[in-house]
Design goal:
Layout lengths: L2 H23 L2 H8 L4 E8 L8 E9 L2 E7 L10 E4 L4 E4 L1 E6 L4 E2 L2 E2 L6 H13 L2 E6 L7 H4 L12 E4 L4 E3 L15 E3 L2 H14 L4 E4 L12 H13 L4 E4 L3 H9 L4 E2 L10 H10 L2 E2 L3 H6 L13 H4 L4 H8 L1 H8 L7 H17 L19 H12 L4 H7 L2 H6 L17 E4 L13 E6 L2 E2 L2
Parallel strand pairs: 1-4, 1-5, 6-9, 9-10, 11-12, 13-14, 14-15, 15-16
Antiparallel strand pairs: 1-2, 2-3, 5-17, 7-8, 17-18, 18-19
Helix pairs in contact: 5-6, 7-8, 14-15
């Protein structure tokens, strides 16, 4: 074979092998996904930027290399030559939603457990969040070492998915709630002494967790609750090492004790009774934020009869049909109703809503979270339902959305990159076909989602 023919033969082999390797690795679609991070503009949309300001009518936003270069009214923003222009006419652009209380990796179908915790499952859940416009999530207390490999935004060669932050493994008392519940064995850190706590917090410090989580609950007296001296020690040890702490709580008196000890964030609403002025004063003094997780309360009773959303295309589009069938099975509803505390659950939701409105009106920082991720708490869909329940509680649509954008970013100390559609921030955005400020259910009318300037498929 002469040199010229040999050259073309080698070139052909190289091209063919490259194509085959691309198909074999599943990376072909990544090329188009990555190219979306180049310069583009959305023109003509109403832009609600998450800062609390009024929406920009007939706005333009410029994205370059995954970040916002400019945003403003059409008349004041020049679109660069060569930029791809996407029409936003008749649409509304909002920041991606930030969930400050979610869980990833533990659930497959309607069952949870450490055996499900894998890179594949974590990524599947983060992509599920992304499809629904939940572009960032704090996974709060049920994560193992594997999460630290995936923490943060998707890599350049990954399919776009939600950015994930983590609290690693959270704390409870020895044989306490919720480690005794199905699927939780070995998940939470069970502690019974201050010395154990020092060792465990030191490990969390090494892992550089984004938050520390404590469960302080006995589920209406059915299970053991972590002792106050232990949760105080956790908060103290975490603060010594520069870590912040959120707590699952239920009772007003526990909330008061935790906040007095320096708790940084309430991971749920108080649900046993109406909050009082003493707690509000303490929250203000300690600068503690509050995450309502109303949809978590709804999930405790909503499946007693098949809820209407099981037939909602926005729900069913990304949920396996066999899961829907299980939830519609009368036997599933019967198990829900058989809970000895079933009659209390609707009241817990109403009390949580009442306390949310009271906290908001008092000026306490309210931060969006859903507690989605455990069985039958569906990642992505539940965040949109949480927004509805917040509006039902008395917040305006703009206020509810603010909790899920700038408020959440501020509380999680990530506002330098996330939470608003302002110059320099990551381009995490949702383009909606209708205005959510007019009707919060319009957050479901998703046209496109971008994470770091890359379009989610």
């Amino acid at each position: 074979m002469n040199k010229k023919l040999y050259f073309y033969f080698c070139l052909c082999l190289f091209v063919c092998s490259t194509v085959l390797l691309s198909f074999g690795s599943g990376k072909v679609s990544e090329t188009s996904a990555n190219s979306a991070a180049a310069s583009f503009a959305i023109s003509g949309a109403n832009i609600w930027d998450g800062t609390g300001q009024a929406a920009i009518r007939d706005g333009v936003i410029i994205i370059n290399d995954g970040r916002i270069q400019a945003v403003g009214p059409r008349a004041s923003v020049q679109i660069p030559k060569g930029a791809t222009v996407i029409s936003g006419e008749g649409k509304t652009l909002i920041p991606g939603l930030i969930n400050a209380h979610g869980h990833v990796g533990m659930t497959r179908g309607l069952k949870a457990g450490p055996e499900n915790y894998s890179e594949e499952n974590i990524l599947a859940h983060l992509r599920q969040y992304a499809r629904y416009g939940v572009t960032t999530v704090l996974s709060l207390g049920s994560d193992f070492e594997l999460i630290f490999k995936l923490r943060g935004p998707a890599g350049a060669q990954e399919t776009p998915r939600a950015t994930v932050f983590t609290a690693g493994r959270g704390f409870t008392g020895k044989a306490g709630y919720p480690v005794v519940l199905p699927g939780n064995a070995g998940v939470q850190r069970e502690v019974d002494s201050v010395e154990e706590i020092r060792i465990q917090v030191e490990e969390l410090t090494r892992q550089k967790v984004d938050m520390v989580k404590i469960w302080v609950d006995d589920h209406w007296g059915h299970y053991k609750k972590i002792r106050p001296e232990l949760y105080r020690a956790i908060i103290s040890e975490a603060h010594k090492r520069g870590l912040r702490v959120m707590a699952h709580l239920f009772y007003l008196e526990d909330a008061k004790s935790l906040v007095a000890a320096g708790l940084d964030g309430m991971a749920h609403s108080v649900r046993d009774q109406e909050i009082d002025d003493a707690l509000i004063r303490s929250l203000k003094e300690k600068k503690t934020f509050a995450v309502p997780t109303l949809v978590r309360e709804e999930s405790t009773f909503i499946y007693a009869q098949p809820p209407a959303f099981l037939d909602d295309p926005f729900f069913g589009r990304w949920i396996a049909p066999e899961i829907v069938s299980q939830l519609k099975d009368p036997a599933y509803g019967a198990r829900v109703k058989a809970d000895p505390d079933f009659s209390k659950f609707p009241g817990q939701l109403k009390m949580g809503q009442k306390n949310l409105k009271k906290l908001w009106d008092a000026g306490i920082p309210v931060v969006f979270g859903s507690d989605s991720g455990p069985p039958a708490r569906f990642q992505g869909f539940f965040e949109h339902r949480e927004l509805e329940l917040m509006v039902e509680a008395g917040l305006t649509p703009a206020q509810a959305l603010q909790t899920a954008t700038s408020n959440a970013a501020t509380a999680l100390h990530i506002s330098g990159n996330f939470g608003t559609l302002t110059k320099g921030k990551r381009a995490d955005m949702i383009l909606l076909d209708a205005d959510p400020l007019a009707d919060i259910r319009n957050t479901r009318k998703i046209n496109k989602v971008w994470i770091g300037g890359r379009e989610v498929n």
